Each structure stands twice: as C-alpha cells, then as structure tokens.
Here is the input.
Amino acid sequence: MGAKSLQEQLLGVGLVDKKKVKKLKAEALQHKQKVKKGKATAADDSERQQQLKLQREEKIEKDRILNLERQNLLKEKAIRGQIRQMIEQNRVKKEDGDIAYHFTDEKKVKKLYVSQAMHNDLSYGRLAIAKLDLAYEFIPEPVAVKISERDPSYVLVCNNRTESIEDDPYADFQIPDDLMW
Here is the structure.
C-alpha cells in the first residue's frame, strides 16, 4: 500500500471533513501557482503579518477583559464573605418582647417583636438590622456602617443618631426647671 498524504490521513482519522480537505488543496494549489508566477511577494507577507498582529492584539484585549471580570467576581465573593463574617461575629442576641418594630425589606413592611431596650437602641441608631440569608440579625451601628461601605443592600435599618442632635432648632433655648408635662 502506498503512502497516504497528511490530508488523507487526517480525513481517515476523522479530524477533518471532505470540504475542509478540498479547501486546503485549493489553497495549496493557488499558493503554488503564485510562487511559480512570481506573484508571491513581500506585500502578501506584510498583509498577512498585519492580520496576525491584529488578531494577537484582539486576543490580548479579550483575555484582559476576561481577566478583569474574573478579578471582579473574586472581589465580590470576598466582600460577601467579609460581610457574612462581620454579621455573624457581631450579631446581638434578640431580646423577645411585645413591642413591634416595623421596617421595610424589598418594598415589603416587616415586623419584629423586640424588648423596649432594643426598640430604643434601634430608634436612636445604636443598633441596626441586617439581612443575612433569610434571617434578620441585629448588629451594632459601627459594624452596620462598615457593612454599608462594602454593600448597602445588607443593612435594612440603620438610623442616623447625629441628625437630631446637630439640627435641633431649639438647642439655644433653655428648658425651665418647673416645666410639667
């Protein structure tokens, strides 16, 4: 049996189909004709070099964009892990009570029953409510501020306690000692 050409071997193995083999043979024939006629010049080579250079630059840009996307995903995952850890380590145990505290979560009004002390801490901004998975956790206000800097969607309630003190229009007036309510 005679030696088979590389194209025939690839066709036999199934790596290429008949159309591809015909196309490659036609290209090879055209190239041979150009070489015989002396038309294969430096202009063809420089055009091909330009195309290859353009393809390399496009691939480099595509790889850079994919790498940035991967880095952003890893960064977001790390931030979510930090937030989870901050909530789990700093959560305040809920004191059950008979006072309802209302807040919103995704445009729905939610209600938690808490003690008077926790209600006051929430109202004055000493405590905040954060959502972790499907549960609501109470966390100290400084931790809530740090979480909000990373991703504000986790903190549902964090009352600002400095507004009422600084913007008090009656701060210059004295309250009489004998005032009865």
Notes: The mean pLDDT is 82. Strands lie at 99-105, 108-114, 127-132, 135-140, 155-157.
